[in-house]
Amino acid sequence: MRFLKLKILTMQKHLFLGVEAIGQGAIDGGMSGVYAYPGTPSTEITEFIQENPIAEERNIHRKWSANEKTALETALGMSYAGKRAMSCMKHVGLNVAADVFVNAAITGVNGGLIVTVADDPSMHSSQNEQDSRFYGKFAMIPILEPSSQQEAYDMAREGFALSELTKVPVMLRITTRLAHSRAGVETKEVLPENELTMPGDPRQFILLPAIARKRYKGLLSSQEMFQKLSEESAFNRYENGTDKSLGIIACGIAYNYLMEHFPGGTCPYPVVKISQYPIPESLIKKLDKECDELLILEEGAPFVEEMLKGFFAKGTPIKGRLDGTLPRDGELNPDLIAKALGKELFKGFDVPEIVANRPPALCAGCGHQDAYAAMNEALADYSKGRVFSDIGCYTLGALPPYETISSCVDMGASITMAKGAADAGLVPSIAMIGDSTFAHSGITGLLDAVNEKSNITVVISDNESVSMTGGQDSSAFGKIESICAGVGVDPAHIHVIVPLKKNHEEMVELFRREFAYDGVSVIIPRRECIQRASSRKRNKK
Amino acid sequence: MKADIILAGVGGQGILSIATALGEAALADGLLIKQAETHGMSQRGGAVYSHMRISDKPISSDLIPGGSADLILSVEPMESLRYLPFLSEKGYLVTNTTPFVNIPNYPDVEKVMTEIRKFPRCIAIDADTIAKEVGSSRASNMVMLGAASPFIDIEFSKIEEGIRRIFARKGEEVVNMNLDALRRGRKFAEENR
Questions:
Q1: Percent residues over pLDDT 90 in chain A
Q2: Most exposed: A45, A183, A336, A518, by fewest CB within 10 Å?
Q3: Touching check for B110 and chain A: CB below 8 Å?
Q4: Distance from chain centroid for Cα A338
Q5: Structure pTM?
Q6: Average pLDDT, chain A
Q7: Dihedral angle, C-alpha A44, A50, A52, A55, nearest 10 °
């Protein structure tokens, strides 16, 4: 018993969140740079690396990028130069980086490149629940999907070697629960960084059509190797079972939810655990041959299920998210899987009716509140529905008591949607965007508006931080007015104001004046995020 | 040994400090842990929770299955009721009685307390007042951990050790105040269970 306790202690050297395990794994895997833009649930990977002593000692690149596209492109540049790099983002961030992501599969890599994408099924902090595995398949690269924090560590550490072996970027896909759940992780030795080396083929990264065609054929012919690697991967396995009435395929964290119901490995059904893609064909075929029915458990979309079911659904009956055995949307949990297995569990107690919802709210004293209060007053003279907003804390301006905004779609869409509405005749149209979102994807939209002298007012509510994700540095810090002027906004229509109650009347007047101006104007209510200010003061102490 | 605990509160109340103290204690006891947290959008003034699982055997799921939590530990009364579908038939409900009112439709506090007292295995404790008595309202979460400690199968001395380690760098005074808070909470629970 004493020995057992000791063993458990050494195995639990670190109590890591899934995201922290990835950060540590990447460092221990010899990574020379992490490139990312904050986004829940991926943010803490980079934050962990920023505060890690080995990262500091090695001077691993760990500053935030302006957006996911610049992040992944820079990581690809580091890979070109022979070093190992990781780019991290939330699922919708991959939409922003999709151009380089898909093309990087065709250029391939020199130094190992891992693209870590954190999906958010159930949309805890997101506008959709897209499943990044589709992107991985689309780009035709290997995907790793850990079922545990330990696997997250191992995959981040070993993913660089896999990328160098396959010569393409490797996707590391996690979901919210694994990202933000802690468990014991055993770390391994820290590998050395790669030396600076040029690509063996000097034309590898030049995707001119003639070269791209060749490289694409190369990617296609590599698929067989990727398949073989999946089948032999230690992350995938076939677990025998005696009851062949059902075979279960469990992907990523769904494997844990399944095993919760069979403590000590007592699952009676054969199980294929998938944590590396492309899906391991031979294991799936074996399961299909041995079992009467298949149940597919996957966090996110019915990705594997659709592939196996096929259009005519002629083969072995398949249960999962498509036939109603599991819900079509939202994240999985042990209860849903119990139900799918026909297990009856005690359902707990009902929530009394008096329990009220407690939605997130802007913090007391937040500058966005003052901006919205003034904006609402200045808008009172116009018909409703003119404020296009964006992604950030200020999106809460959709809720009472403000109810100011009419849209929240994707990073930067406030400015461009306002322009489109103004083009259609809704003048004035107003964009409400934060400082870091502006830096991320607002600048090019502003250029479009300036070029056409659109009748819009762009409110850049500047709290000098990326606040929604915890107060990271905003890449436009101290540069917003000069960016706007540089893009061509008339300096007479660029205004900075401090959003405080005492400036309310002045702010209302300013909004009124610029809403009435026929052209592009920019109003910058600027006051530091109060959360960031207080944590800055705390750290100073 | 197994303890499945739902920690509940409002974003900003620092429920994770309880998880950290308990995690330290469990590690020192050679136990295994999984603990799922709430990050992101719901943090600011929204309802937050954490699933904390402690066991001497490997833990599969990061989430506690419904109807199987041994304990709901809430630092706010209404929040203690939000997670009742997770509570097992023999589970305990341990909650602070000081409401955190940041919504216009917060229910009548007496009605909330009535719902809480419907559970025979409940401890309702005014942790804020006790924390002030021991020296700082910031120690209220340690009062709550103390009040829950009789229902968690970890040696009390290990929990004390965990608190010592967490607060060590803040000096002996802070350590002792938090230990005091922990013991006061435990005493209350033992006298009122």
A1: 91
A2: A518
A3: no
A4: 29
A5: 0.95
A6: 95
A7: 130
